[in-house]
Amino acid sequence: MHTVELLPDPATEGVVREVWRALAARGLPSLDSHRHGTNRPHLTLAAADELPGDARRRLEAAMGVLPRPLCLAGTLRFTGRTRVLAWRVVPGPGLLDLHRAVWDVLHPGGGEGGNPLHAPGRWVPHITLGRTRSRSGDWAEDLLPAALGLPWNGMFTGARTYDSVTRTTAPLRGVP
Questions:
Q1: Fold of 2-173
Q2: What is the pLDDT of residues 152-168, one digit of tens each?
Q3: Those residues with Cβ within 8 angstroms of residue 22's Cβ, 6 or more apart along the chain or in another chain
């Protein structure tokens, strides 16, 4: 599986990492414990089983609109086999346009593959804070860091792809 991800500016990345650390310090599931070198705060725009032939060139061109405003406001919880706590990304028109452009590159002609939850109209933009398969771990509201109760404004300044098989990333724009 290949994903296309937006990366926040350094200040926003720092705030998200601080929330990760605060969750972990409270004994809550957090991405702070995920030590793989590719782990960093990001917004997944879309996924595909394979990158179509000229996808990289077209994705790099689509990322020419960066930087884009970023607003984090409120938390989301996703349930299922894996439960997720996330910081909600408020999608402005520019972000929705970029999402659609990336979707169209990865799924030409409305093709199948990838995660249907990333499809336009179904996509819920967020930055993951923690995940667990344990039924005992939960994110009680009174244990959440205060930062999650306040909106945060920043910028998406970079983009990358992630290959889940090789566990590697490749820059698309502005990635250090």
A1: Cyclic Phosphodiesterase; Chain: A, (3.90.1140)
A2: 999 999 999 999 899 99
A3: 145, 147
